[in-house]
Amino acid sequence: MHPGRSGRSLGERAARSGIAQPEPPVGGAGARPERARGRHCWVHDPPGAPGVWPGLLVEWRQADGGWHGRVTYAVAAPQGTVLVEAWVPAALLEQR
Question: pLDDT for 11-37, tens place per residue?
Fold first, then answer.
């Protein structure tokens, strides 16, 4: 527990849930990304947002064509910053 809070943090509750995550990949094409636990990453050229964006890797899944990471990242848009959550191929992710 953290001072000033009345309960366990989300991370503490998740750790105590007893649900194990599958072994994920380690980033880059053909590699096995390491376990994701809310890790900071760089998202390279995601669909609709060319460039390199700071992101947060939330989880991994293996699908047709390889590993994909579920990431959240913020991109600059004409109306302001937009928060995006998407499944992105591991080849587009880089550990920070």
Answer: 566 566 665 544 455 455 444 555 546
